[in-house]
Each structure stands twice: as C-alpha cells, then as structure tokens.
UniProtKB/TrEMBL annotation:
Example GO molecular function: catalytic activity
Range of residues in the leader sequence: none
PROSITE patterns from the UniProt entry: AMIDASES
Amidase domain segment(s): 27-475
Designated name of the protein: Amidase
InterPro entries: Amidase, Amidase_CS, Amidase_dom, AS_sf
Origin species: Acinetobacter junii
C-alpha cells in the first residue's frame, strides 16, 4: 500500500484490511510515519513522538474495532504513562512532567486496538480557539499553511486532515473539537455531559462542559469510537444512560423527518462572515432536499450573558489549574504565557457568590434549550464565524502587553474585566467562535459537519446541537448528509 491508497480509507476501513490479513499493522504504521516525516515539519501537528512504543505495539496482536489503526492523542488531559506531557505549556515542558498513569479515555482507545505514535499540538492549557503555543509554535492548516488549524484540538485536526492518521484524540470545553473540525474540514462530535470518562485524575471537567472524543474523516469512525469508549467509571460524577443500540448500528438507519431550526446571527453581536452564512444556507437547502423541515429560529437566550457566564467559569477554573501546576512543578508566572497569567488573574478575583450565580445561570440556559427542543429536533448554526484565521492573526495587541504586565505586577489585572470592559473582553475572545459555547454550558451533544468550502478552498463546518443524550440523532443525520454529499474525496485535494 502507498499513501495515495492509505488516505482513501477511514479508520474502520484500515482495521478491516488488518483483520482480513490484507495488510499488517506495522505496514500501516510505516505509511503513517512516512507521511508524518514528510508533512509534519510544515504542519507542526505532532509535537511529542512515541515512535518506538508504537513500533513495538504494532508487532503485538491487537483487538477491537480499530485494531492496528495508527492514532494520535492530544497533549492535554490525555495522559499516556511514561510519555512527557506539556498541556501546551512551557511550565510542564520545562518541568518534564511525565505521568505514571494512563487517562481512562486513553485506556479505552487502546482497548479499541489503536496504535498511538504521538501527542498533538494544543494551545497552552487549551484556553484558546487557535493552536499557537509559545512552547511549541503554531500548528498550520493543511488546506493552506498560512492559516491556523484552530484549537484547542488543532494538532489532531491538522494531522487527520493531512492524512497522517484517519482519526485522533480530541477534547471540547468550549468548542475545541468543533472549531478545528470546522477549520480543517473534518467531522467532530462533542458528546453529552457525562458520556465519556475523565478519570483517574478527575471526576469531571468544568462541571461537565468539557468532554473528550475524537476528530475523524468519517461519521462511522466517530460512531464506532463512541461505542468503544462511552460510559462511566469509578470516578465519574455524571452518569448518563447508555444508548439502546450501538451507534455504529444506529447510523445504518435513516433519520426520521426532522424539524430543524437554524440561525446565522452571532449570539454575542459580533460579525459573521459571508462564508459562514453561505455554509449554513447550503446545509439548510441540503436538509430540505432530504425531506427535513428547516425553520429560521433561535432559543430565547441572551447570548452575551451566556458568554460572560461561560468565561467567568472558564477563567476561574483555569486560575485553579494554574495554581495547582505551580505547586506541582515549582514554576512561576514567567513560565506561563502572558495571556494565561492574565486570564488566571481575572479568574482568581471571582468570588464564591459570583461563581454560584454563574452556575445557576447555566441551569436557566439548559431550561431554555429544553423548551426550544419541544418545538424542534435540532438547532443549526455555523460552527465558526469564518474560515480559519491566519497564523498570528489572533494575538494580544502589542500596546496591551506592557499594560497587562504592569497591572499584573501590582495585582490589578482584574480591573480590566470590570464594567463595560467585560463585554468587550468576551467579544474579543469569542468573536471568531461565538457559536460553540452554548452546547458546553448546557451539556448538550453537538457536532460540526464539513459541507462547505469557500472559493479559496478553505472549509467551514455547520454545527448541529441536539437534545441531551441524543448523539444517536446527530450521528444518524450526519451519516445521511455524508452519503448525500461525501466529503472524504475532498482530502485528495490537499497538496502539502
């Protein structure tokens, strides 16, 4: 097999070849490593190699739906025993943090038979919608190397789109699966709160807003991997009912006639590009051609207030994480990026009363979505407000940096997050990605489906949000859309 043949298969397709003894797992790994050697210097997707471990495992008998398939894990919350892990940060990179355990999600992926050969690039602690960490450098988009792959699962998205692997580990706390899926033309599903595990380190992440799954080229790979990993463990705080059928079987059935609401306006009042609007309009027409009812409507939620409640929780949680890492690694603020230090400073000033008020608001947003889904089966929006930004396009302005440093020095950085400046900070942080946080805050399953490429050949996804626990409905529809407008042939157009 050569690369031009390898890239035509998804993960299940490669696993079938291994199972039928048409190819050995070690040969697949060899092709993946050769592709990596050719393109990763341009992409900067894989930052921590695990080549020798992978070669050893490729010689061993593997079992599971993805037996023998090359795979990558994200360098954030996906610990692999004995492998250096940085969370995209110089603080852990310099400390040489090397966990003595596997994350439970990694164990489940391993039990599915994959062969992991590296850890992928991510922004520092996953706190940005782009992947440009100072510790490792920017991760580039295979569709156009001048553009970013998105974040926080940017390295995984870049590697899958470039054909290094057909599927890779990802995580989503504010859109971090769906954003890079949109920018890199992939399928990305964020599961419902509690669907996938967080142990043994954690019982949950950010009150269940953050979930782990994969980025893939095909819908069936995502469905089969969800079959392999879903369900609670001993440490799980949230427990969700298992589906009555396997997801891989569910997607063989056509969805019922769905009533789908769509909206293209930014919930925080920021600009939405013509591409993003056209992407959703294209998807709406495709849905109608498949017999679904599409209505322009949106839930009765103040998007800017939701965004502020999300950011308050997010910054506060990060402040706690940074403090814990400082204790563990004996690092200082100088070992973290300036933006990270500033966000932690904002979060540290959130009072317990403010924090509880924010969480109560999260509940009200869930109520509104439950009411909304009494009228509709799904909610459709752009996944992102535009195609991928260029590398270096989203940065803290140079004039702000000395001000931030001065305020941090005297412990007053949180002053920047007061009054009307809060609204501006939210809009500045989320203007590129204003649509994804709704599903995280409410714990609802959501997906980005690659159905649109602009005139410059850059992709932009369509996001669907479903009622709680209805990954089956999302995956069914995604499979129908994939059949109606196959997107895997598009990957043949990537020339790196």
């Amino acid at each position: 097999m050569n690369f031009s043949e390898y890239v035509q298969y998804d993960g299940l397709g490669l696993a079938a070849l291994v199972k039928n003894k048409e190819i050995h797992a070690s040969e697949l790994l060899k092709i993946a490593l050769e592709r990596n050697e050719k393109v990763n210097p341009k992409l900067n997707a894989i930052i921590i190699p695990m080549y020798e471990q992978a070669k050893q495992r490729a010689q061993q008998e593997r079992h599971g739906a993805f037996a023998g398939v090359p795979f990558l894990v994200k360098d954030l919350f996906q610990e692999y025993q004995g492998v250096p892990t940085s969370y995209g940060s110089n603080s852990l990179k310099k400390f040489n943090y090397t966990p003595d355990f596997n994350a439970e999600i990694v164990n489940r992926w391993e039990n599915a038979g994959i062969i992991t050969f590296g850890r992928t690039n991510t922004p520092e602690f996953g706190i940005k919608g782009i992947t440009e960490p100072e510790a490792w450098g920017a991760c580039r988009n295979p569709w156009n190397l001048k553009h970013n792959s998105g974040g926080s699962s940017g390295g995984s998205a870049s590697a899958v789109a470039a054909g290094i692997v057909p599927i890779a580990g990802a995580g989503d706390g504010g859109g971090s699966i769906r954003i890079p899926a949109s920018y890199c033309g992939l399928f990305g599903l964020k599961p419902s709160r509690g669907r996938t595990p967080w142990g043994p380190q954690y019982s949950e992440a950010m009150h269940g807003a953050a979930m782990q799954h994969v980025l893939s080229k095909s819908v069936r790979d995502s469905a089969a991997m969800l079959d392999a990993v879903h369900g609670p463990e001993q440490s799980s705080l949230f427990r969700i009912q298992s589906p009555e059928q396997k997801y891989i079987d569910i997607i063989q059935q056509a969805p019922k006639k769905l009533r789908i609401a769509f909206n293209t306006q930014s919930p925080i009042g920021t600009k939405v590009s013509k591409d993003a609007i056209q992407a959703v309009e294209h998807t709406a027409k495709l849905l109608e051609s498949l017999g679904h009812i599409v209505v322009e409507d949106q839930p009765q939620i103040n998007g800017l207030e939701l965004a502020k409640d999300f950011i308050t929780t997010w910054f506060s949680q990060f402040s706690y994480m940074q403090a814990q890492i400082k204790l563990m690694s004996d690092t200082t603020d100088d070992d973290f990026e300036l933006d990270s230090v500033a966000l932690a400073a904002f979060g540290a000033k959130t009072s317990a009363t403010e924090y509880i008020h924010t969480l109560n608001n999260w509940g009200s947003y869930s109520t509104q979505m439950n009411l909304f889904f009494e009228q509709y089966d799904l909610y459709l929006t752009p996944s992102t407000a535009s195609v991928a930004p260029k590398n270096g396009e989203i940065v803290t302005p140079a004039w702000q940096k000395p001000i931030l440093k001065a305020l941090l020095k005297v412990g007053k950085a949180h002053y920047l997050a007061q009054g009307k400046l809060v609204d501006k900070m939210v809009q500045d942080n989320l203007s590129w990605v204003p649509f994804t946080q709704l599903a995280n805050v409410t714990g609802l399953p959501a997906m980005s489906v690659p159905l649109y490429w602009n005139k410059n050949g850059l992709p932009l996804g369509s996001q669907f949000i479903a009622p709680f626990g209805r990954e089956d409905q999302l995956l069914q529809l995604a499979a129908q859309l994939e059949q109606a407008q196959p997107w895997m042939p598009q990957y043949q157009n990537i020339k790196i």
